[in-house]
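Practice record 12: protein with iron/sulfur cluster.
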Amino acid sequence: MTLTEKILARAAGKARVQAGENVWVRADILMTHDVCGPGTIGVFKREFGPNARVWDPNRIVIIPDHYIFTADSRSNRNVDILREFVKEQGIRYFYDVIDDPNGHWVFDPTRGPLKRQYGSRYAGVCHTALPQKGHTRPGEILFGTDSHTCMAGAFNEFATGIGNTDAGFVMGTGKLLLKVPETMHFRLEGRLQPGVMAKDVILHIIGEIGFDGATYRAMQFDGEGARGLSMDDRMTIANMAIEAGAKNGIFEFDEKTREYVEYRTRLNGTQTTYEPVERDRDEKFIYELVVDLSKLEPIVACHPDPAQRRLAKELGHIRLDRAYVGSCTGGKTSDFLAFAQVLRGRRVSIDTFGVPATPEIVQELQTTDWDGQSVWGILVEAGVQMTENASCAACLGGPVDTFGRLNTPMKCISATNRNFPGRMGHRESQVFLASPMTVAASAITGRITDPREFLS
Ligand code: SF4
């Protein structure tokens, strides 16, 4: 069996499963957020009754993160709906925007978009927060009401996005009926060259197979090249499995996974036990591709979908209006460090926005010192508008007052993960997906630029 089949077989209580089979699996964690949480709660109450109890209050993780720093009152109210439900059900893991369990969340636009407006438990973007807060464990099943839930596949678990109806059912029963996906195999070899990042790996792969090339399939990433990648890199790759239509993306378990998971689960007092899955000799794949990481160059996915693969160096004629670094995919500490590596001592020539994925990342950037200056300070000095309000922000557009949103037709280069028309705001805008280094180089020149031009 493949890694995915082994996890599903275990969760279904079976010795073996095969692709195409429908199995009932038990969930280890259900995650929801402010956009889909209220709808999921509505389904749960409608189907199980107004006084029903959730299947396990210790296995539901609620992370408001999407439409948070906006004066839109309906968006603010969604966070209050989550808080009420958490209180009613005794849900243990709720990363509220405010500290007062009886309060109401209201964003104050008069304080501006840059200064922190959240309390001590707020965790930021759900997919980045889940591992940081110790909720991703090898061998487990994670369901989330968000398509990029597949990011947790970096931790050798089966993680997939589900709709509100399925999530309402999981909330009540802890189970879900799943068709076992076929597995596509991506063997990574070699090491990335300077100026090339994990984002380039996944943009290369999606360009190869198409934005529907993995529809309802598992994407398994392994090999010596995968083992050489950091956990942040693996998260970037697994995150974008859905951009090829995949059910999930998954990496092998190794010492790096163990170190990350053990540190995070202990730090946060979450469950520390888990059982990884290892590769079998009899894996059956529907597709195989070997990717030599050392041969890759900086890549850009052009408008209007993530499979429009081109080399950054071929796109110097495309003039840009905006640059954006942030999101679960491109707003991690390592992403901002790579971004700063290119920008250090230089200035951006177009509007450039930086939105760290989580408050912990904000703190890391503000306390990481490069020759007497914080990385945060270096970015601000370079002209980047850096906000402390970690969230999804303009990654998916959001209400019109969302920080960085494309409110007029414009061309934006972005470290985010999706570029279908309208994704970051205005329907006539064009979004070019790239690595944080390529975004930095392009922000300096105002046109799409290969970051190797700025690396000595
Ligand atoms: S940062 Fe973007 S891709 Fe990630 S969860 Fe938020 S909206 Fe989705």
